[in-house]
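Quick one: co-fold with nicotinamide-adenine-dinucleotide.
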Amino acid sequence: MHILITGGGGFLGQKLARKLAANGKLRGQEITAMTLMDVAVPACPDAGFPINAEACDVSDEAAVGRLFAKHGPFDVIYHLAAVVSGAAEADFDLGMRVNLMGSLNMFQAARAQGNCPVVVYASSIAAHGGEEPDVIVDGVELNPQTSYGAQKVMGELLLNDMSRKGFMDGRGLRLPTVSIRPGKANAAASSFMSSIFRDTMQGDTSNCPVGRDFLIFHSAPRTVVENLVIAGEIDGAEFGFNRCLNLPGRSDTVGEMIAAMTKVFGPEAEARITWDSDPVIEKIVNGWRNRVISEKALRLGFVQDKSFEDTVRWFLEDDIARPA
Ligand SMILES: NC(=O)c1ccc[n+]([C@@H]2O[C@H](COP(=O)([O-])OP(=O)(O)OC[C@H]3O[C@@H](n4cnc5c(N)ncnc54)[C@H](O)[C@@H]3O)[C@@H](O)[C@H]2O)c1
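Sure, here it is.
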């Protein structure tokens, strides 16, 4: 069992690689090798099997071909490489190149292997928006309101069609906002959803640009990584006609999440939050969907966070001593 992770140097790619290395198995088989690829050579976790780390640009079809020729064939491909929402919105051509053409390159390379590999694709809650119900249920028409969301949806359509054709065994997961993200704040409008917890628990101040009653649809890194593993395990036929689904998450207000942090960590962190509203960020984040009922995912065995208190505990165990 040889696994490829694109975006293997990123936040979720690194966590997934560590989890798979610890598990040692996937789909009932021993993992015999793993290949991590990213724009820069990714770090490799300790593992009981060899790990290849390669710099490769998913938007470069020839480079992807060389990667597959050198290390393939792969049995399971996790396609996580992407430029995230802010960057794809600021630079339409970059987003199209990496998120759409990069996905097409990966799917075509998977197809060319001829072994119908399992392909797990990271889509996003950003697939939803606009003329959709306030509460998202399975089967609503996707109406993304960003270029990033539109590119993710185009990847979903490709994944579905190429699975229907038998070129690959695809599974697309619409991830909630993953919080608490370790490391440094990034330029995403959602950045505060991690930094008001991560930075304040590490002794820094952080500004919350929205009110305490702002509702967030979120999931913990540990839960999302567990769901990526589950996505690789499931029998593809169980997905039925649509290989893409909304992952489970939690809907909590900022105030509820802060209260959970205080319960686990104590009151010092909350005292480091400032509350200067930012109308620009508010306008963006108020357009996001924050209530999702993920019946299909739960029926297929995907897991849901039980509390934000767990997320805080897991951050303290996994990330506070080892910033990404
Ligand atoms: N973290 C979240 O809240 C969230 C929510 C919804 C969806 N997602 C999706 O999950 C996936 C992983 O997200 P993440 O949070 O780990 O993001 P991340 O930015 O930490 O990781 C993405 C990785 O992709 C790499 N990448 C970018 N362009 C590339 C290219 N041309 N070729 C090869 N690699 C390239 C980046 O260098 C980065 O390491 C992404 O597809 C993202 O869109 C994440």
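If it helps, Residues 134 and 289 are 7 Å apart (CA to CA).
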